[in-house]
Amino acid sequence: MSSSAAPGTVPPAGPTAPARVSTEPGPEPTAQARPAPPSGAFRPRTDWRIRFGALALVWGFSFLLIKVGTDGYAPFQVTLGRLVAGTAVLAVAMAVRREPLPRGPRTWGHLAVAAFFLNALPFSLFAHAELTIPSTLAGICNATSPLWGMALSLVALSEDRPTRRRVAGLGLGFLGVLTVLGAWQGFSGLDFGGTAMALLASLSYPVGWIYVRRTLSGSGSSTLALTGSQLLLGTAQIALVTPLFTTFPATFPLLPTLAVVALGALGTGLAVLVQYGLVEEVGPTTAQMVTYFIPVVATAAGVVVLGERLSWNTPVGALVILAGAALTTSRTRGGGSGRGPADRT
Q: What gap in Å lies between CA 333 and CA 150, rounded to an integer?
């Protein structure tokens, strides 16, 4: 989750490293441009390992929170509430640090596109998907983002050259997807609509990452300012769409409301600030490893808290997906690295 990611986030992530999106899962992650995190990034005295674990928990639980939120609200309403809460957190952070908003209509235009692919679209798709699929499956689908990103980068980014390791990782990852979906048994019992929406949400993140790399690199604004502005635009986009497909809620049930607020404030807002601090303290390579814990936490949360059923092929396939993602984003001896979810948050 997004990452504001990742996913969200991460992005997951939505729900990564500041060179791209926050995967909050989106868990899913929110987008971030090339500028490094500001020197005043969120750096509490807490040991970075504790913050790393907390980040994995927040983004992993995002899929559970989405499921709980859709018990009381329409998917677009869950997405809108999430974005409002996340934007509020980053707005406060920007005010405290006196971060100015980005300037220029071109920058804002690019941010609007980034907001669509990294926030509005994937967040909405995951919320709609979890009406018919378990949160565990949604969390595992989110883990395919680095695989989609690797495949797209080979086409869209000239500096990303295929290597045997990365191609092998891509093939291994999609073999894991087929394992999770139970391809050998004809995908029986699978909700195709919900699964397709979750996979499309995961694909949306790398599309946004590549767009951000091509358009917002060297914009002159800080990562925090760009991400906060992007969330603001994503909120505006969903605010325009939501009244067209939903009616104003007659009641505000407590548990779903708390889930949506936590999803936005923690997974789409605070998690981004925590990740800034991690990237600045231990570097993007270590910080990006949180991506591989998200589906594990999402699966455990869905099974233990929501009582979702888990067949053997789901965890086995998830491990294969993570192994493939690790290969596609690992460094080569020449010093290059795959561009995966690590770049997104």
A: 18
